[in-house]
Amino acid sequence: MPTNLDIIRSTYEGVSEENGKNLLAALDPYVKWTEAAGFPYAGTYTGPDEIMANVFQRLATEWIDYKAQVHTYLADGDQVSAFGVYSGTYRKTGKSMSATFAHLYKLRDSKIIQMEQYVDSAIVRDAIA
Question: Which stretches of the chain are assigned E, i.e. beta strand?
Answer without folding.
Answer: 27-35, 43-46, 63-76, 79-90, 96-108, 111-119
